[in-house]
Amino acid sequence: MKASEVEYIVVHCSDSPQGRGDTAATIHAWHLANGWDGIGYHRVILEDGKVENGRPLYWVGSHAYGYNSKSIGICLIGDGIYTHKQFAALRTLIFKLLDRSPQAKVIGHCDIDSGKTCPQFDVKAWWLS
Prior knowledge:
Elements: E1 8-13, H1 24-33, E2 43-45, E3 51-53, E4 71-76, H2 84-100, E5 105-108, H3 123-128
Parallel strand pairs: 1-4, 1-5, 2-4
Antiparallel strand pairs: 2-3
């Protein structure tokens, strides 16, 4: 996917319990078990704020039906309660992604799929704060 094709940066959550130690490798295994080609997100942010790679940015993701070909997917590990380190890492990562694709809008998965609550906070309001 070319940087100029990215219209959205979509924030997701793993919807997994805090403190369990889930990582990008964990999500990769879940997605393989579902019959997918592997992890659908481009980046995963662990509870300690570490950012792990998922799919390369040049690959179309598999994280937001109908939006995959025009978005980058970021997944926060957790189920709605995130650490300060995660939010700091998310902000830094979004700034880096916007350097690459300045036209992109920052949204939550729930903003494009009314059947989802992920990532369980108002991403647009958080980003503008």
